[in-house]
Amino acid sequence: MALSVAFKSSAYVSWMATGKLQKTIAKCTQKSGVALHSGKFATVRLLPELAGKGRHFDIGSNCIPASIKFFEQSPLCTTLCANGFKVRTVEHLLSALEAADVDNCRIEIASSSDDSDDRVVEVPILDGSAREWVESIQKAGLEDAVDQNGNNCEKMVPFLNEPVHVWRNDSFVAAFPSPTVHITGGINFPQVPHIGCQWFSSAPIDSPLYATEIASSRTFCIYEEVEKMRNAGLIKGGSVENAIICSASKGWLNPPLHFPNEPCRHKVLDLIGDLSLFARCGSQGVPVAHIIAYKAGHALHAEFVRCLSKIRS
Fold it and tell me: Before 256, cis peptide (omega within 30)?
């Protein structure tokens, strides 16, 4: 994609230089584990990538860019699809990469299951949060990315020009111009008193704050909905080791929580991962704005990014 096209400003967004250079991971690092929905064992390798290449998944010799253009709606996770190949549950990994300023990264992923469809892979869930991804990135370190000619590239950032929102029923994602990235998330589970209505707000979203306040927040589920989800072919790899589980009548079944509002913080973690799909050519994906999401899921997050991108589903 030509840079003049990739960073063309619109009514909603203006792309601006940051004065910072694009980064990539300094050396290869990998994590293995069980995938949440398929229940299959998978290995992910994070490798350095050239400046301007952005983040992309490699399945064999097939490339799937981490871009909203390749988003495919699927239940309870974010899925990317290109040329008949799919990678599922990318949100926690992409959230960690975006927050850690890993602008360019080749992500190799392979399932070790003999009977798996090698055209569909899934990122392992690990402990249900982004903590292990953040730790792996920190251990590997970052370095300035260079392009194929050995040159550095400046990092571009999208600034919101005017308010924008998307909504479905009583769920919404809205954003307002702001000099810094500010994210506010809200959830409401009135049928589950131990979760109830929660809010979490954070500004700015930078690597140290993300690592301490967001990354360790784990995915959660309602105990009474587990059987229904499994009957639908979901959460085959789910367990008390990779999710916090709350019963409507008995409360949390595997405490303690990392934070009193851990479920809401996890929704913000997911939101950052989905917003990262706005990135292109090694840019920042999360727009500089005050972003407010209430009762929003992956599909609504994607609709918001499409709105910024002027991509219609």
Answer: yes
* Amino acid 195: pLDDT: 98
- Nearest Cα neighbor of 132 from 230, 5, 29 is 29
Side chain identity, residue 29: T
Q: What is the DSSP letter of 205?
A: -
φ, ψ for residue 207 (rounded to 5)? -60, -50
Residues 137, 46 contacting (CB under 8 angstroms): yes
Pairing mode, if any, of strands 29-34 and 41-47?
A: antiparallel
- Give Cα separations from 217 to 210, 270, 301 (angstroms): 10, 10, 19
Size of the chain in residues: 313
The pLDDT score that the predictor gives to residue 252 is 98
Question: Residue 15's pLDDT is what?
Answer: 96
- Rounded to the nearest angstrom, the gap between the alpha carbon of residue 283 and the centroid of all alpha carbons in its chain is 15
Under DSSP, the state recorded for 218 is P
Cβ atoms within 10 A of the Cβ of 133, count?
Answer: 25
DSSP 236: T
Q: Kindly give, in sequence order, each residue whose CB lies less than 8 Å from that of residue 194, ignoring residues fewer than 6 positions away.
A: 246, 251, 252
Q: In terms of DSSP H, where are the helices of the chain?
A: 3-6, 91-99, 131-140, 207-213, 226-231, 262-275, 298-309
Q: Quote the CA–CA distance of 294 and 296 in Å, as a whole number.
A: 5
Residues of the chain with pLDDT under 50: 312-313
Could you give the angle at which helices 298-309 and 262-275 cross, rounded to 10 degrees? 30
Q: Which amino acid is at 46?
A: L
In three-state secondary structure terms, 56 is strand
* Dist. CA 202–CA 262, nearest whole Å: 14
